[in-house]
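Subject: for your reference before the review

Hello V.,

The reviewers asked for a structural picture of the protein, and I figured it would be easier to keep everything in one thread rather than splitting it across files. Below is the amino acid sequence we used in the manuscript, unchanged from the supplementary table.
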Amino acid sequence: MPFAVSAGQIRTSCPTLTTAWMYPGLAETLRQELLLYSIDVQIYLPVTMYTPGYEEENKTKPELTLKIEESDDGLTAEKAAEGLYEGIVPVTLTFFQFWD
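And here is what came back from the structure prediction:
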């Protein structure tokens, strides 16, 4: 059964590079730890999400970065959630009780 991690937009400039690698690292660590229990872990990181925070971020974003991102087809939060959900729909959940 998949466990999804969604982080929204992650910038990869030098000060935030370690933070950007934190999410894939967490997902990979969880994946390896949970393989024993047949639990699948997936991570979902949409590049651009059109949110109020994104609009605020664009006010201080360098012009070059805005130029690079102008062709990016971003997602609304609702569309991102739909994409995430569609990726995990065919899941059968089974719960086990390991205690008496």
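For the response letter, the relevant points are probably these. Residues 2-88 form one domain. Residues 1-12 have pLDDT under 50 and may be disordered.

Happy to draft the paragraph if you're swamped.

O.
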